[in-house]
Amino acid sequence: MKSGHFTVSGTIVYAGKAYAATGAGVIERVPVTALQLSVNIDTKTSLGVLHYQEIDIAGVKYSRIGSGAWRSGTSTFGPDDLVPTRYLNEETVNGVKCWHAQAVSIDGRTYDFSVRKSDGYIPRSSTPEPTAADTR
């Protein structure tokens, strides 16, 4: 895989509260590792829905909330975060043939996903529950 588009949905836990999140992004592996991610977080407060954007390119991370200023820093995203990937089987998702695969992150969490055979799009994915370290 040289690149892939994905959608995300889940729950972000922060300070003991859970917030619904949905979004989409793109991963590039060639010619340089890069990630673009946009996530909407429903705060269920007067803040409404927060829009978070992140772009990681070759070790540099740029992020912002809403229309705020972009901030930059060192990225922890890299090609090692995407492997090892294990092929499980072929399956049909929403009537389309896909490869079913799993990947283990460098912190040992297992990610389960389906990759559409025709174009590499990821129509289904699941991520592990957040750990205590994720909620700090």
Q: Compute the number of helices.
A: 0
DSSP strand count: 10
Strand order of the largest sheet: 1-2-3-4-5-6
Distance between the termini: 33 Å
Beta-strand content: over 45%
User: Roughly what percent helix?
Assistant: under 10%
Largest sheet: 6 strands, antiparallel
State Rg.
Answer: 16 Å
**Whole-number tally of structural domains:** 2
Mean pLDDT: 79
Q: Uncertain runs with pLDDT below 50, 5 residues or more?
A: none
Shape: globular
Secondary-structure element series: EEEEEEEEEE
Structural class: mainly beta
Features:
2 domains, four-stranded antiparallel β-sheet, single chain, six-stranded antiparallel β-sheet, mainly beta, 136 residues
Concise synopsis of the structure shown:
By secondary structure, the chain is mostly beta strands. It has two domains: 1-81; 83-130.
List the helices and strands and how they pair.
Blueprint (H helix, E strand, L loop, with lengths): L2 E12 L2 E12 L5 E9 L6 E9 L2 E6 L5 E4 L10 E9 L2 E9 L5 E7 L7 E3 L10
